[in-house]
Amino acid sequence: xxxxxxxxxVVARPPLIYLATLMIxxxxxxxxxxxxxxxxxxxxxVLAAVAGIAIAVWGRQTMLAAGxxxxxxxxxxAMVTAGPFRFCRNPLYLGLTLLYxxxxxxxxxxxxxxxxxxxxxxxxxxxxxxxxxYLEAKFGDQYRSYKMEVARYVPFVG
Length: 158
Prior knowledge:
By secondary structure, the chain is mostly helical.
């Protein structure tokens, strides 16, 4: 039986954070429309959304194959460094961000971009930093070494 403290203590499940932020942005768009780029944004929006879904699915499948929990409210049972985790320590969150941006572009609203700033702050402070602290405590030098070699968010960028 695992300890209650054997989890990162994230503020909420990340998909719910993204969904809640998107719903707020869409409600604001309905109340006070702020068009972004018009029809020109639909194509790039769809491409970003599809890329986001692909990255998130790849990351999820890699975690499941490694035998660890995908849900960050549950204990990590293995450190995952394969698949998209070779390039980015948070590919599921990168995927969710691309999906969110894609939807924002496709529905043509500045509100989605405006809401992105607090969304990313909540994710960074309330999820990512907590997960990193937890993983470092759980996996020690192995995780610290991984952190030094792989970018937190954007592959190939420090």
